[in-house]
Amino acid sequence: MELYPGFSLYRGIYEFAQYIILEGGMRWEDLNDSENGMKEVLIIMSLEWLVVLFAAYGIDIVVSLGSGVGRRQSQNSRKNPLSFFWKPNLQNKDSRHHVQMDNADVIQEREKVDQLLHESSTSHAIVCDNLQKIYPGRDGNPEKLAVQGLYLAVPQGECFGILGPNGAGKTSFISMISIQNSMIGLIKPTSGTAFVQGLDIQTHMDQIYTNMGVCPQDDLLWETLTGREHLLFYGRLKNLRGSALTQAVEESLKSLNLFHGGVSDKQAGKYSGGMKRRLSVAISLIGDPKYWIRSSFKDNLWSVVKKAKQDRAIILTTHSMEEAEFLCDRLGFFVDGSLRCIGNPKELKARYGGSYVFTITTSSDHEEEVENMVQHLSPSANKVYQLSGTQKFEIPKSEVRIADVFQAVEIAKSKFTVFAWGLADTNMEDVFIKVSRETLQSNSLT
Ligand SMILES: Nc1ncnc2c1ncn2[C@@H]1O[C@H](COP(=O)(O)OP(=O)(O)OP(=O)(O)O)[C@@H](O)[C@H]1O
To answer: For FRET with 191, which of 110, 165, 230, 398 sits at 20 to 30 Å CA-CA?
Structure first.
C-alpha cells in the first residue's frame, strides 16, 4: 500500500498508459485486474475531484467576502409559494458595503420592503431589495461602489423623485431597474434585485419591458425617421398591432402636441430641441406602460407627468428642486450611492427646514451692523455666506417672529441704505444642502 496517494496515482497513470499502449486498449472487465492499476486510478481521481471541488468552493467564498461583493441572492433563492416575490436571502444584508441607515425614514422603507417581500400580493409597482452596483476597478483605479444596499417600494400611482448631486449614483440606479441593454449603456446589478409588478429584473426583464416606459436624459432618436415612424416602431416593440397601434400613435402625437401642422410626418432631425424632447416622452409612454422612468432635462412637461401619474408608478430623476417638489409625492435624496432620506416634500421641509433664510444687501461698510442686528434678533442665527455687502443667514424659526424681522429691517433702513432684503421659508434646495452637508460630516467622522 502506498503512503502517499499522489505517488500511487502517478504510478497508476503510468501503468495505465502502459497497459493501453502495450495491450491495445482497456475494457471494463480489466477493472478487476490488479496488475493494470485502473481501479486505483479511478478511485483516487474521484477522491481528488471531490477535494478540489470543496477547496474551489471555499476559495470562492473567501474571495467574494474579501472583495465585498455580495452574492447574488434572488436567482438562487427558492420561491415561497405564499410570497408574491422571490424571497430574499437575509445573509446578503450583512454585506460589507451595506448602507449605513441612520435615518428613521430609510429604516422604515427597508422594513416596508421586507414586509412586502413576504406578502402574497402587492399594490407596489416597484420594490428594490438591497440593490447594489459596484463598478470593477480598471486601469489601476479602485472599484466604485455606485449604489449601496438600496431598499425602496414605490406604489402604483406614486411619483417618486430622486434628487442628488452629480456622481451620487442616480443614473446607475435607474439603469439597473430599466432596460439592461448594452447598446444604450444600461446595466445589471452586482447584487440584490428589484421587482417590477412582482417580476424579478434579474430573470424577467423581457416581460417587464412591455410594461415599462423609459424616457432618458438624452433624446435617442433617428434623425431620418419621422415622429410618427418612431412611435410606430416603438409601439410594435410594445406588442401593439393594427388599429390599436394606429390609435395609440395618434393619441400620443396629439397629447404631446406633435400632431398638427404635419409635424408628425417631418423627420426628427428637423425638429427643435423641445419637439425632440416631446417625441422622447411620447415614445416612452406608448403602449400605456404601468411604470415610467423619466429623467427630466429642462423640458417642463409637467402636465404630462401629472396626467401620467394617475394610473402608473413613476420614478423621476431631476436636478430641478422646483419640479421635484411640484410633481413628486415622495422624494429620496441620494448621496454617495445611498438614499439618505425619504419623505414627501412637506415632511422633508419641516424636518430639515427648522429655519428661515434671511438675505440682505447693504454697502460693505454696514456689514457688521447687519450682523449685530441679526445676532440681536436670534443669538443662534448662522451666517451662510457674505459677499460684497450681501449676507445670508439661517435663523431658527423657534427664536424669531416674522414681524420682528420686518421691524428690525425698518430700523436698519432708518440708519443706512438697505438695497434689498428677503425672508424665505426653507425650500427643497436648503433641504438638499443640509442632507448633503450632514452626509459629508458623518463620512468624515467614520
Ligand atoms: N461604467 C462605470 N465605471 C466606473 N465607474 C462608474 C461608471 N459609471 C459611473 N461610475 C461612477 O459611479 C458613480 C455614480 O455615477 P452615476 O452616473 O450613477 O451618478 P449620477 O448621480 O447619475 O450622476 P449625474 O447626476 O452626474 O448623472 C460616480 O462616481 C461615477 O464616476
So the answer is: 165
Q: Are 151 and 90 in contact (CB under 8 A)?
A: no
State what percent of residues in the chain have pLDDT above 70: 81
Non-local CB neighbours of 362 within 8 Å, separated by 6+ positions? 369, 370, 389, 412, 416, 417, 418, 419
Of 181, 178, 207, 128, the closest CA to residue 292 belongs to: 178
Contact 20, 56 (CB under 8 A): no
Mutate-to-test residue for ligand 1 from 131, 144, 166, 317, highest number of ligand atoms within 8 A of CB: 144
The yes/no answer on whether domain 354-425 falls in CATH 1.20.1730.10 is no
Query: What's this model's pTM, rounded to 2 decimal places?
Result: 0.65
Is residue 417 exposed (0-12), middle (13-18) or buried (19+ Cβ within 10 Å)? exposed
| pLDDT the model gives residue 446 | 60
ipTM above 0.90, yes or no: yes
- Asked if pLDDT for residue 128 goes beyond 90, the answer is yes
Distance CA 159, CA 125 (A): 11
Q: Is the pLDDT of residue 200 over 50?
A: yes
Q: Does 319 sit in the ligand 1 pocket, CB within 6 Å?
A: no
Pair 345, 333: CB distance under 8 Å: no
Cβ–ligand 1 contact at 170 (below 6 Å)? yes
Q: 212 C-alpha vs ligand 1 centroid, how far in Å?
A: 23
Cα(249)–Cα(222) distance, integer angstroms: 17
Tens digit of each residue's pLDDT (9 = 90 or more) over 352-372? 777 888 999 999 999 999 999
Tally of residues, the chain: 446
